[in-house]
Request: fold
Amino acid sequence: MSKVRVHNMSVSLDGYGTGEGQTLDEPFGHAGHRLLGWALGTKTFQTQIHGGTGGSDGVDEAFAAKWGPGIGAEIMGRNKFGPQRGPWTDEEWKGWWGDDPVFHTPVIVLTHHPRPMLEMEGGTTFYFVDGTPEEALAKAREVADGLDVRIGGGPTTVNEFLKADLIDHMHIAVTPIILGRGVNLWEGLEGLEDRFDIEVVSSPSGATHLTFERRPRD
Amino acid sequence: MSKVRVHNMSVSLDGYGTGEGQTLDEPFGHAGHRLLGWALGTKTFQTQIHGGTGGSDGVDEAFAAKWGPGIGAEIMGRNKFGPQRGPWTDEEWKGWWGDDPVFHTPVIVLTHHPRPMLEMEGGTTFYFVDGTPEEALAKAREVADGLDVRIGGGPTTVNEFLKADLIDHMHIAVTPIILGRGVNLWEGLEGLEDRFDIEVVSSPSGATHLTFERRPRD
Reply:
């Protein structure tokens, strides 16, 4: 069975995975780009995501690089797709990532307001699905061609999949800042550690990388 | 000027420094001893605090050992001193630490219900003080003989001293568990990182040690 994976999910020391007040200019609200500070300079982000060259190739890159290989589909929350809320008033919005998004796979966007699928350049197709985490995962597996499914965030979506116990592997990066408000990844997840084997390593960037590996289910 | 220091303050991934439901048997409430898991096996805890021998002597010990040297007085919250709340009904309670407490210095206990000082064996004297963090610190400096003052916790007390910007050096150990409830060390401290230089290192025990060094005040 293919795995369900989370990569590069960044949280503050107080557990917030995004800030308050998302807008077109500030996808992470008052958090700005601080949560991803460890990642932005890596080779993976510089080349695959920003289309440039170069980038760091140390501890942070070792984690960042695991984002793509083996992934056949992503599931994301609507707030990762865009800043709009409620019924779509403008279907011209096609995500933050331009005509050739970084995903290059099918992407399931969770929303209570479905709209027609959106085929982009480079292999990314957005499907808009109103359903439970289980239903979204079934749809993702249909289109993932036997490969793994990435839960791409934001924190609300990762939190929901953790509550539903659907995640097999999770990489979290803790950034030493106190956000104070936003969406807390850990809300309602008391005792989560009982289900996972956890390893921890810090990086010279100041981030701490944690891997959560789901223990065998009985 | 002597420094104000915090050592071995342990929090969960979601920021809780103690659990809910403190009792005589469970000083950390539902957290039990999990937050201090990284520390209990160290040489410092095994010898100085539990009066035994042996103990680990690696990364965790390097941090644990900094708890004592150079400290002339501790300030603690009443909930670190004991599980009682409200007016003292039984002044027989002399802390969790027996006749010869681990501190061996004066200790200021913050409480709205003062009681006579309590001189213990081994150099520990408890003073019960009703006052602001600034007033407690002034009293601690009076009795610290020019040495540093340790803010001993619990998390409510450390939080109050951080809000009052009275802390010069702070060692935090993050344990990879989700407590879900209790006292959150980071409550109301958005942007704390702006006042400190922070370093981070992980330990094979699973804990992540962070040091916060106060930047020069203008």
About this structure: Chain B has a mean pLDDT of 96.
